[in-house]
Amino acid sequence: MTDRSVPSSAASLAAQTTVPGTVRRPAGRALWRFVREQPFAAAALAVIVVLVLLSVLAPLITPFGPTEQNRSAIQQPPGGRFLMGTDDLGRDVFTRVLYGARTSMLVSVVTVVAGGAVGVAIGIVSGYFGGRWADSLFQRIMDTLMAIPGLVLLLFIAALLGPSIRNSIIALSLLVIPAVNRVARAEMLRIREEPYVDAARANGCGLPRILIRHGLPNLFAPLMVIASLLFAGVLIAESALSYLGVGTPPPTASWGRMLSEGTKFLEIAPWMVVFPGGALTLAVLAFNLLGDGLRDFLDPKHRR
Amino acid sequence: MVEYALRRALYGVLVIFMVTVFVFLALRAVPGDAVRIQLADAPGVTEEQIAERTAALGLDQPVLTQLFHFLGGAITGDFGASFSDGSSVGGLIADRLPVTGQLGLMALAIGVVLGVVIGMASAVRPNGLLDQSLRLVSVSGLSVPSFWLGLLLVTYLAVYAGWSPPLIYQGPAENLGGNLAQMTLPALALGAAAMASIARMLRSSLLEVLQSDHLRTVRARGAGRGTTLFKHATRNSLLPVFTVLGLQAGGILGGTVILESIFGIPGMGSLTFEAVQMRDYPVVLGCVIVYGAVFVVVNIVVDLMYGVIDPRVRYR
Questions:
Q1: Chain A residues whose beta carbon lies within 8 Å of the beta carbon of residue B97
Q2: Are B154 and A266 in contact (CB under 8 A)?
Q3: Which terms in the GO cellular component ontology are assigned (chain B) (predicted)?
């Protein structure tokens, strides 16, 4: 876990400007320690940064537009003008992989942040009232959501709402919320027994203040880990939805949609499937490695 | 133990009930009239016909009445009739479920066998070359989307080996060879994630057990590396692996939706997908509920297996 400095009640009253429960340390040094201790995860972080940069700077990197069709160059193999070949409409696969990264990353970021926020809110309230009716009510709802296999639930919700980026985010959030809730609740069950929570309560802190100022900072570490691993899962799930035709609607470039368009031409134009899938796998791998590395880095118990 | 099993089963029934209510209400909460969407494509549909169809399906009743009616049927396995051809949803699912069951079990078997082999091989010499490369294999297995893996397997086998799986489904009873030829690739793709997480979990759990006191004793008595690993450590390391199994079952079940569609396997997955595309709501409803029920049952079985594997586990 992160260092849990116990905020004395006097300090927490006096130092309203800084967040109690955290010790400010130079971020640069922590990053350097992370790079040394978890080289694989650090490399994964670098890959993520590069992927984000490539997708943001896509218009500067590639001369083609994501939906621009080159009628004279249909299903060209990789090489020459078209780094990853072209698809059945003569669109440049490399360009679409870059723009697809935008879609996938955007959907995943919004999903993990929005779903994560709801999951944390439910989790910490549940954990604080652990065992009482509010907790039971929330957890029964979460159990219901978790009882349906992920992709089935996704397909169901996305199909009900119709294919659009906003609706994919809503559907994907339903996978993120229970997972984050689980972690946040377990941590909050532990945190509520800590002396500093007693101290805060004795000082007359209200519920919101206890949860936000004393609960949240102390479950930051496990949340970072689960967020990274969930990001990997959401990337796959988003592509699966688009692959099935209920996610990102065409002609927006998305990895899943590219895979489903390429499936028909597997044997004559495999590059239509190999590259978007490879990009997806690389991104998922990077987030999985980052999550693993963060867990080992933040939790000494996991170190070997 | 019996009391725990009963309580677990009872809660399982409650969860399946909640899933049913949730799915039913979610369908009704969505704007848009199911009948109108159904009949919209048919030429020359009159308002009377729509009203008639709505009444025939009981969709003009209050939502709660519909819910109770549906729940009453669902208990006996009657999920109503398909919008598209009027056949019984329960019957459709009963036809398709065994196919998906076979696919899921094959995927699970592949995942467990490969996962245990890789996990144990990794633990023989931690951080050795073999371990490092196997860990790379498992973290990749965890990251490869199953549908992409399935597509790649088909492509490369077709291009380099000139072999493609049959696209017409045959039951295991009529043609076992043909059946397995079609099912093995999707099962492999589906099992990859389970393989990866089982291997990772078994490795770390084995390493922990290998450092324990009783295994030091085993080694002190002169047991070789093999005996220590196979006879004494593995059994003690299996518990966390089972936890992973329960979690991975969800991934395998969900994955059938997409892989059955790719490989043309007529199971629950393709039934669900087709129903979603055709907006055949009774079929969608039945499929989601049955998927949920299977997942819940698998998790209860996994929980009960803890006690079989490790007698020290006490149920509370």
A1: none
A2: yes
A3: plasma membrane
Nearest CA in chain A to B268: A152
Give the Cβ contact number of residue B231 at 10 Å. Answer: 11
CB spacing of B273 vs A244 below 8 angstroms = yes
Tens place of pLDDT per residue across chain B (316 aa): 788 888 888 998 999 989 988 888 888 776 555 666 666 556 666 667 777 766 666 666 777 777 877 787 777 777 777 777 778 888 888 888 999 999 999 999 999 999 989 988 888 887 788 888 888 888 888 889 988 998 888 888 877 777 777 777 777 777 788 788 888 889 999 999 899 989 988 888 888 887 877 777 877 777 777 777 777 777 777 877 888 888 888 889 999 999 998 888 898 999 999 888 887 888 888 899 999 999 999 888 888 887 777 777 666 5
Q: Which residues of B touch A258 (CB under 8 A)?
A: none
| B155–chain A nearest CA distance, Å | 6
**Interchain proximity B257–A157, CB inside 8 Å:** no
Domains of chain A, first to last: 39-302 (1.10.3720.10)
CA dist., res. B130 & res. B121, Å (int): 8
Q: What is the ipTM, given to two decimal places?
A: 0.84
Token pair in block for residue A34: 């992370």
Tell me which residue of B254, B282, B273 sits closest to B91, measured CA to CA: B282
- Where b means 16+ CB within 10 Å and e means fewer, A286-298 reads bbbbbbbbbbbbb
Pick the CATH number of B98-276 from 3.10.150.10, 2.30.40.10, 1.10.3720.10, 1.25.40.10: 1.10.3720.10
C-beta of residue B115 within 8 angstroms of C-beta of residue B198: yes
Tokens 């959030």 correspond to A173
In chain A, which residues have their Cβ closer than 8 Å to the Cβ of B152? 273-274, 277
Dihedral of CA A209/A212/A215/A218: which sign?
negative
Instruction: Locate all alpha helices (DSSP H) within A129-254, ordered by sequence.
Output: 133-147, 150-161, 165-191, 195-202, 207-209, 220-243
Return the number of other C-beta atoms located less than 10 Å from residue B52's C-beta: 12
Give the Cα separation of B180 and B23 in Å (integer): 34
- In whole angstroms, give the CA distance from residue A299 to residue A280: 28
- A-B interface: how many C-beta pairs under 8 angstroms? 122
Q: Reduced to 3 states, what is the DSSP secondary structure of residue B88?
A: strand
| Residues in chain A within 8 Å Cβ distance of B283 | none
